[in-house]
Amino acid sequence: MTVHLYLHIPFCHHLCPYCGFYKHTPGKLANRDFVDAILAEADRRGASSIAPKTVYLGGGTPSLLSPTLLERLLRGLAERFDLSQTAEYTMEANPATYDLEKARLMRELGVDRVSLGVQSFQASVLQTLGRDHTPEDAIKAYETLRDAGFENLSLDLMFSIPGQDLALWQADLDQALTLAPEHFSAYNLTYEEDTEFLTKHQQGELDHDEDRDATLFHAAIDRFEAAGYAHYEVSNYARPGFESHHNRAYWAGADYLGLGPGAVSTMNGERWKTLPDTAAYVRATKAGIDTRVEIEVLTAEDRRLEAVAMRLRTREGVALDLLPTPDPLPSLIEEGWVVVEDDHVRLTRDGKALADPIAGMLV
């Protein structure tokens, strides 16, 4: 069976106030039992019959795992899954969570792509975001990965942070382009449910400025495209041949298996979440109890709606035959937000800044 594999490692040294993913500090839970629980879950999901096209370790902070646990986990995956056809093996990492020895171990164990959570190179912006690394830590972390032999690196950046103006964002872009990774993800800050940032926004402590969103978004497009990076998805830029295979599969609606507490899977028309409680997840796995929750059967209409929302964000756009009839295309074309080419609807430069509301109009 060919699918894409995602592992959720929920441990973070410090909990960022804007992040809505399931995560927590390691405490006593980052241990052998946790790794063995993931491997047991892999066995339960039929790992021996699965040949992942991509593997992605996200979180949380996978690079926070100790070298011993990291080796146990990655070797355990290699023993269970057929990785001979895996085209991309990505691991998320944060600055100051690994040294050269651990980076070399990651590479030795098969990881060939790292997504580095920089977010900003400006001390003031990092402070607003509640990040616990410095700009110097981020640069050192990048250089360490290069020294370890990684030839496919992605930097995560964030923009439209309260207090961040165009000059600060341009300074981030300057530094990021100086490092010259193969890929960038540049995310517009959003206020996620159950986060400290949302509470502060609701209390008026943190602002949201749509004009700032658009200005900084277009500045990123201009700078990255001028430097030779293709804008292949609303939040993602890559040098030719370095687009994220894992994310492209996700946007295309491919099946993927998620392992670890809080991970989501979509396989054979079903979607489920894995129990988002690390201690309970480990206990249940040890006891042989199914850790799936929120199981749903996806209808054809569910898949169509998701396809429109996801594919519209990509360079390829969404096929016309996925759109309802009658549709709002004429008005969107007149506004200059979309074009129709080769039987696909694609966002224009202005339309990309409005991807989500436009998708809402099209479904």
Summarize the structure.
The chain has 363 residues and is of the alpha/beta class. Helix content is 39%, strand content 20%.
Describe the protein in words.
The structure is a single chain. The chain is of the alpha/beta class and 363 residues long. The protein folds into 2 domains: 248 residues, TIM Barrel, CATH 3.20.20.70; 62 residues, Arc Repressor Mutant, subunit A (Orthogonal Bundle), CATH 1.10.10. Helix content is 39%, strand content 20%. It has 14 helices and 15 strands. The protein has a 9-stranded mixed sheet, with helices on both faces. Helix 6 links the parallel strand 5 and strand 6. The chain is globular, with a radius of gyration of 21 Å. The two termini are 31 Å apart.
Characteristics:
363 residues; TIM Barrel; Arc Repressor Mutant, subunit A; nine-stranded mixed beta sheet; three-stranded antiparallel beta sheet; 15 strands
Helical coverage, percent range: 25-40%
Largest sheet: 9 strands, mixed
Query: What is the CATH architecture assignment of the largest domain?
Result: Alpha-Beta Barrel
Give the structural class.
alpha/beta
Beta strand %: 15-25%
**CATH homologous superfamily placement of the largest domain:** Aldolase class I
Separate helix tally: 14
How many domain modules? 2
Strand order, sheet with most strands: 7-8-6-5-4-3-2-1-9
**H/E element sequence:** EHEHEHEHHEHEHHEEHEEEHEHEHEEHH
Report the span from N to C terminus.
31 Å
Query: Cα-atom Rg, whole angstroms?
Result: 21 Å
CATH class of the largest domain: Alpha Beta
Envelope shape: globular
What is the overall pLDDT average?
95
Record field, number of beta strands: 15
Using the coordinates shown, work out and report the CATH topology of the largest domain. TIM Barrel
